Amino acid sequence: PIVGLHILGHASDTLVEPFVVAGADTLRCVADTLLAGYYVRLGEPVDSVRVGFNLREGQHFMVTGLLPESSFNGGVRVVSTGVNGARTTTWTDRCPEFDRELALVKPDIVLLGLGINDSTCPAKDFKPEKFKNNYRKLLSRILEQSPDCALVFITNNDSWRYVRRRMVHNDNGAAVRQAMMELAQEYDGAVWDLFTIMGGNGSATAWRDAGLMKNDRLHFTREGYELLGDMLYRAITEEE
């Protein structure tokens, strides 16, 4: 059950404030200048809420995250971040509030599944050291906020990429895998080797034929994502 909600983001002016509808209650959010967002404490625990904004012409509110507070102190809390098409540099160069927001989460374990959009180029143009340096910049920010958190690197899936409105195979999967293996060794992290689990180079076609990837052989189907989620969960929670 949800007992509170942090709404992270930026308003165009001080007159723009979010509100939360929880059951029959409509609650005003209080500005949290320390975290660059708003917070509301609910009157009683609920399973879901609706967030709204009273906006006039010319006003806007950019939501950068929603972080619910639970009344249950045990178990596992999962927080995800990421948008379609993002690169590693999206976090290092375009997310100035990333550090403050990460401090609010205080993760015990960070799963790093970035990198496929960093490698959508011909094999001759992929630079492993540049790839690793971009990752190092991100990792330094993560470890500054959570120095004791465990790191799990998820290697890229085998994939195809767009070139002039057509799809060609992305030949950088093995090189990205090697770069992540080296980063994991450097940072004493673990690796969930998705690239090898799939079958390595060229395996995206077999996954598409099995209904686990879409026709672009880049994105998974719902069934594919559910399978990967189940395998990752088991890899983390089950002892060998």
Walk me through what this model shows.
Strand 10 and strand 11 (166-169) form a beta hairpin. Helix 1 packs across helix 3 (128-145) and helix 3 (128-145) crosses helix 4 (173-186). The chain contains 7 helices and 12 strands. The strands form 4 sheets. Strands 4-5-1-7 form a 4-stranded antiparallel β-sheet, with no helix packed on it. A 3-stranded antiparallel β-sheet has the order 3-2-6, with no helix packed on it. Strands 8-9-12 form a 3-stranded parallel β-sheet, with helices on one face. The model has no long low-confidence stretch (mean pLDDT 91). With 240 residues, the chain is of the alpha+beta class. It folds into 2 domains: 2-70, no CATH class; 88-237, SGNH hydrolase (Rossmann fold, 3-Layer(aba) Sandwich).
Q: Specify the biggest β-sheet.
A: 4 strands, antiparallel
Topology-level CATH name of the largest domain: Rossmann fold
The CATH superfamily label of the largest domain reads: SGNH hydrolase
Distance between the termini: 33 Å
State the helical fraction: 25-40%
Q: SS-based structural class?
A: alpha+beta
CATH class of the largest domain: Alpha Beta
Order of helices and strands: EEEEEEEHHEHEEEHEHHH
**pLDDT averaged residue by residue:** 91
**CATH architecture label of the largest domain:** 3-Layer(aba) Sandwich
Q: What shape does the CA trace take?
A: globular
Please state how the strands of the largest beta sheet are arranged side by side. Answer: 4-5-1-7
Q: Uncertain segments of ≥5 residues (pLDDT<50)?
A: none
Count of beta strands: 12
Q: What's the tally of helices? A: 7
Provide the β-strand percentage band: 25-35%
Radius of gyration: 20 Å
- Tally of individual domains: 2
